[in-house]
């Protein structure tokens, strides 16, 4: 027996038991090797006119014998001499395919497509086999050679027989394992079924460029006997037929102009198990230092588990048409986790098991290009098929918003223009760019209100106050919305009409435009402002003066109301934003009322442990209720001041969609007042 040419048996044990995590990929590796052998012979025939082969006969065949517990992978490729068996199979991690690929790099492409890169794929057979036999006859030789090993100490090479050139790899499968302490056991019998082998071929090797053939069982109706009566019932018989079980030509390798959308739809639904057609199909081919094909799909609806912790994102990664990873999550950012599809590249550096990828520039370059393609396609849908885009955003918009929030605003440049929000003024979904284009010239911020429904938000006094001044308000109704805006802080509106500092500059610009010049534009930085927080600075100088005067005149009243409300509010003040409502609750600092509500709904939402917003009770000094408060203060009626303060505070909370701390006391106070 010949010993493996490595330093110790431990290396072989590492190859067999540690490199691969999924036993079923042994078939993928052996079929890939068979494909390489056929490719080498095909290439040889193209280079040497004396080599005569029929291209239509080149194939790979897979068979099994349940009783003998064997699986055989056969090819009619170039085969191996005894020396090549010694070099390729006797030396662990030596790759004849890699050698061939390097020597013929210029021809790699349409004529030859070598899959193998490392010499360890063959040894994956020992994960499932107790004994491996390789019968190979090199093209042009009369004698075959047989390599055999149990994967433990060494191997033998002897002369043998094979009718024609090519290679047979015969695996004798291990016996099924006994149950372990967890009640689990490896069942190797699953590989000894027609369905089991066929499904593995179609999962991992469906797009290998040569036919992979199997004898498959079928059923057919027997001919009706001539003497059969009227009560004859059809009889059926089982038979076997050699069938090609792989598709060979992947749809992503075809030009998009040669593929109908219905074919893409069918591929998407069958591959990704969806009942609906995709909303968008993105197909592209990249060339240059890195060559790859990509076929991407935006689903027509969100999967039920999209926002669950069990959802797995990622694209199927192929290398030379062979599935390497079913879901390569490195190819998609989290905010595009809904995208499904395929990337196929022969240039990606794989580790020796081909199951996991090395972190390298190639993978990052592909991911970056994929992201740009998705973004560009979504922008195209937004601009040219608004109805479809709004449906898409309804399904997947939350993820885009979360992408900005989770990156602390760093992804705002890429994602902000994909967002849609409800416009209180336009009564439809609009982008931030569309909001900016519709602003009056004097507007310096984007105004929004956050809550649980558009209807309630539209009726809020603070929203009506901003609308009455001619400014639009975006109504945000998802829990992530305000957190997203907090992370963004501002929106840069591109190509806005230039605002001039003085009349002379404006007049000069207008004259230039009249003479044929293009109007000047500029990028404008617009702060994102919640209409229920801070000072919006929308009041006129007269309104500000009136509010200041009312505050000074009624300092004692505000002090009494603050004392009555205690730590419920930071202060009581005159509002310059209200028009017809008697009072409203606003906040100071970064935490708004809506954000406080969202945080309290979370897993850590214990009322005592959550941060509280800094609430301010703002009063409308022009409202009749304010006159009642002033009269009570002048009359020295402390009880009435306390009662009115509590009622105004609680009703302002109700407008915000927040229940009073003591609803029973609130109801009683209303009844007493009546």
From TrEMBL:
What is stated as this protein's family in its record?
Answer: Belongs to the heat shock protein 90 family.
Where would you find the membrane-spanning parts of this chain? none
| Any single GO CC term annotated in Swiss-Prot or TrEMBL for this entry | cytoplasm
Q: Where is this region: A?
A: 1-354
Q: Which organism is it from?
A: Collinsella aerofaciens (strain ATCC 25986 / DSM 3979 / JCM 10188 / KCTC 3647 / NCTC 11838 / VPI 1003)
**Gene Ontology molecular-function annotations:** ATP binding; ATP hydrolysis activity; ATP-dependent protein folding chaperone; unfolded protein binding
Could you tell me what this protein does? Molecular chaperone. Has ATPase activity.
Which residue intervals make up region (Disordered)? 534-554
Location in or out of the cell: Cytoplasm
Binding residue positions for ATP: 29, 33, 75, 80, 88, 95-96, 117-122, 167, 354
Which Gene3D superfamilies does its entry note? 3.30.230.80, 3.40.50.11260, Heat shock protein 90, C-terminal domain, Histidine kinase-like ATPase, C-terminal domain
Name-wise, this protein is Chaperone protein HtpG
What quaternary arrangement does the UniProt entry report?
Homodimer.
Domain Histidine kinase/HSP90-like ATPase span(s) in chain numbering: 22-177
Q: Which CDD domains match?
A: HATPase_Hsp90-like (cd16927)
Composition bias of kind Basic and acidic residues appears in: 541-554
Entry annotated with the keyword Zinc-finger: no
Does the keyword rRNA processing belong to this entry? no
Q: Which NCBIfam families match?
A: PRK05218.1
Keywords on record: ATP-binding, Chaperone, Cytoplasm, Nucleotide-binding, Stress response
């Amino acid at each position: 027996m010949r010993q493996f040419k490595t330093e110790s048996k431990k290396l072989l044990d590492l190859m067999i038991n540690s490199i691969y995590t999924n036993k079923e990929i042994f078939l993928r590796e052996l079929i890939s090797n068979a494909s390489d052998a056929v490719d080498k012979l095909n290439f040889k025939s193209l280079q040497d006119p004396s080599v005569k082969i029929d291209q239509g006969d080149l194939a790979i065949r897979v068979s099994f014998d349940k009783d003998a517990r064997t699986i055989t992978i056969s090819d009619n490729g170039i085969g191996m001499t005894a020396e090549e068996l010694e070099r390729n199979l006797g030396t662990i991690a030596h790759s004849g395919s890699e050698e061939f690929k390097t020597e013929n790099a210029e021809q790699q492409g349409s004529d030859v497509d070598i899959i193998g890169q490392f010499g360890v794929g063959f040894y994956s057979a020992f994960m499932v086999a107790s004994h491996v036999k390789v019968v190979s006859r090199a093209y042009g030789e009369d004698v075959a050679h047989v390599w055999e090993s149990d994967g433990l100490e060494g191997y033998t090479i002897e002369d043998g027989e094979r009718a024609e050139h090519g290679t047979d790899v015969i695996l004798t499968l291990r016996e099924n394992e006994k149950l372990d302490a967890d009640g689990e056991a490896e069942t190797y019998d699953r590989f000894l079924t027609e369905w089991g082998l066929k499904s593995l071929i179609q999962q991992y090797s469906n797009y290998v460029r040569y036919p992979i053939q199997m004898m498959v069982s079928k059923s057919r109706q027997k001919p009706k006997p001539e003497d059969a009566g009227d009560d004859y019932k059809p009889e059926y018989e089982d038979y076997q037929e050699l069938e090609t079980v792989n598709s060979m030509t992947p749809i992503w390798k075809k030009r998009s102009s040669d593929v109908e959308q219905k074919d893409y739809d069918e591929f998407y639904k069958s591959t990704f198990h969806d009942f609906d057609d995709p909303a968008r199909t993105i197909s592209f081919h990249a060339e240059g230092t890195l060559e790859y094909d990509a076929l991407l799909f935006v689903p027509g609806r969100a999967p039920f588990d999209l926002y669950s912790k069990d959802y797995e994102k990622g694209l199927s990664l192929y290398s030379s048409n062979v599935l390497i990873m079913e879901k390569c999550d490195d190819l998609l950012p989290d905010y595009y986790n809904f995208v499904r599809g395929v990337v196929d590249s022969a240039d990606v550096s794989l580790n020796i098991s081909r199951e996991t990828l090395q972190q390298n520039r190639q993978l990052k370059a592909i991911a970056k290009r994929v992201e740009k393609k998705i973004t560009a396609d979504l922008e195209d849908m937004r601009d040219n098929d608004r109805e479809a885009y709004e449906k898409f955003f309804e399904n997947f918009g939350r993820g885009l918003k979360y992408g900005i929030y989770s990156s602390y605003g760093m992804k705002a440049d890429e994602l902000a223009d994909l967002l849609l929000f409800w416009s209180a003024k336009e009564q439809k979904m609009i982008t931030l760019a569309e909001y900016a284009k519709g602003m009056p010239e004097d507007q310096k911020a984007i105004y929004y209100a956050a809550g649980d429904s558009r209807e309630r938000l539209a009726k809020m006094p603070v929203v009506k106050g901003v609308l009455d001044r001619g400014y639009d308000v975006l109504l945000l109704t998802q829990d992530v919305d305000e957190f997203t805006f907090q992370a963004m802080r501002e929106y840069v509106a591109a190509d806005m009409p230039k605002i001039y500092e003085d009349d002379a500059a404006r007049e000069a610009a207008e004259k230039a435009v009249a003479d044929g010049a293009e109007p000047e534009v500029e990028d404008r930085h617009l702060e994102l402002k919640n209409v229920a927080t801070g000072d919006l600075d929308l009041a006129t100088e007269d309104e500000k003066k009136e509010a200041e005067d009312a505050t000074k005149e009624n300092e004692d009243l505000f002090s009494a109301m603050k004392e009555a409300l205690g730590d419920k509010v930071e202060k009581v003040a005159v509002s310059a934003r209200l028009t017809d409502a008697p009072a409203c609750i606003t906040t100071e600092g970064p935490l708004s009322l809506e954000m406080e509500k969202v945080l309290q709904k979370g897993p850590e939402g214990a009322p005592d442990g959550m941060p509280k917003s800094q609430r301010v009770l703002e009063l409308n000094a022009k409202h009749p209720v304010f006159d009642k408060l002033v009269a009570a203060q002048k009359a020295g009626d402390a009880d009435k001041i306390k009662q009115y303060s509590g009622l105004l505070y609680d009703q302002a909370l109700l407008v915000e969609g927040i229940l009073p701390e003591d609803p029973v006391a609130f109801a009683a106070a209303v009844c007493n007042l009546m």
